[in-house]
Amino acid sequence: MNCFRFHSGEKKEEPTSIKSGSGRSNSSTNAEDDVRRSGSELHSKDAYENSTESLRRTALPSLSQRPSNLKVFTVPELKSATKNFSRSVMLGEGGFGCVYKGFIKSGDDPNKKIEVAVKQLGKRGVQGHKEWVTEVNVLGIVEHPNLVKLVGYCADDDERGIQRLLIYEYMPNRSVEHHLSTRSENPLSWSRRLKIAEDAARGLTYLHEEMDFQIIFRDLKSSNILLDEHWNAKLSDFGLARLGPPEGLTHVSTAVVGTMGYAAPEYVQTGRLTSKSDVWSYGVFLYELITGRRPFDRNRPKSEQKLLEWVRPYLSDGKKFQLILDPRLERKQIFKSAQRLAIVANRCLVKNPKSRPKMSEVLDLVNQIAQSSLSASPELPLKNFASAQASQETKSKNKRRVTDLKAGETNWFFRIWRPKHQRAS
Predict the structure, then answer these.
(1) How far, in Å, CA of 392 to CA of 403, rounded?
(2) Tens digits of per-residue pLDDT, 373-417?
């Protein structure tokens, strides 16, 4: 089966909005309100046409013509699998629509049934359909242990009209967001959080660097990282994903969409999308794992609502740093490991996107932290993240910051660019 055309993010069709990440969902599909940014034109027409037209000419045909192993389902099959989309098997409800648990016949053994999650498109019109098509295109051709597997899809007609559904592998341990919530009865242990950080970095590395084309995830957040029965973390919800820029171009220009608190500042300002936008989001996610807090939380005092602004004063002092650690963890035991992870997060959150590391470099560092955390041997030194184009003096300073894990060394975080305040409506 050939995939549908991969949506390239045409300006006239895609809304200029970011989602509010101020509330946690009780399900793995986070229901969030759209937050409209003022101004509909976030990038110049010339820059837009230069990048997207080239993308359409080169990358789209090769992607849409790749073979896919997705199974095509009918509405009756999915009604049978989900007890006629009964609320008794509903796993959650998000911006896309409702998600149900179901059972389908195994492709390997027809006598065996396997658990799946069935996502049904809600009445969101054209935009929801575009995200549905994007998921089919992306997950129909990519496969990795740290990406949620798309089993199949349905585009069928019944008495209610066109039905658009996606069928995924079932992830019984829900989302990382769910387990970081204060309502969670079983908070994630530190070792499990490190494993999740590794898995997420591995999934992004695959998308950015390990294929003959690049995919920018564009909506990395804790609610989009799901956990299987063995607590392996997998990236999910590729409705906002985009192909990376073709050779010769530095970025893809798109309207700004995403989730408040996670979006990279340069992307919010200009609409210029690169893989380094995902790196920024990953840095925010690391602070989520460290603190157990949301990136943006209206339920907290005003001075604590924005995670990155709240943690900043605590990073320059070792004694203060432990105050930002998730109180559900053994702070003394994880202190050094958490401090090292914060240094990696800070590197992902550098103002200049070109100075941020690639995800493969981030993965290497997180792997070192996870290994040293489990080992009784002295902690491994972190590698130097300095840019190859940086001066020798800058390289030396950066190397000292990464390898010397004293708390006083983290004060360079204050140079992180502060994004403009985003007003929610």
Answers:
(1) 16
(2) 887 444 445 544 334 334 434 444 444 444 443 333 333 333 443
User: Beta partners for 306?
Assistant: 296
Query: Which of 86, 121, 92 has its CA nearest to residue 27?
Result: 92
- For residue 163, the one-letter residue type is Q
Catalytic annotation present for 219: yes
Tokens of 326: 């998730």
Query: Residue 120: exposed, middle, or buried by beta-carbon count in 10 A (0-12, 13-18, 19+)?
Result: buried
Query: Are the C-beta atoms of residues 116 and 170 closer than 8 Å to each other?
Result: yes
pLDDT average, residue stretch 309-329:
92
* DSSP code string of 193-219: HHHHHHHHHHHHHHHHHSSSS-EE---
pTM of the model: 0.76
pLDDT tens digits, one per residue of 79-98: 999 999 999 999 988 767 89
Write down all domains in the chain, each with its CATH number in brackets. 31-169 (3.30.200.20), 176-415 (1.10.510.10)
Q: What is the Cβ-side half-sphere exposure of residue 318, based on CA atoms within 13 angstroms?
A: 12
Q: Provide the CA 322 distance to its chain's centre, in angstroms.
A: 26
Crossing angle for the helix pair 359-374 and 331-348, nearest 10 degrees? 170
> Is 113 labelled a binding residue?
no
Which of 199, 219, 237, 278 is the catalytic position?
219
Say what the pLDDT of residue 64 is: 53
Question: Is the separation of the CB atoms in 206 and 212 below 8 Å?
Answer: no
Q: Decide if 186 contacts 348 (C-beta within 8 A).
A: no
Q: What angle do CA 267, 271, 272 make, to 5 degrees?
A: 75
Radius of gyration of the chain (CA): 21
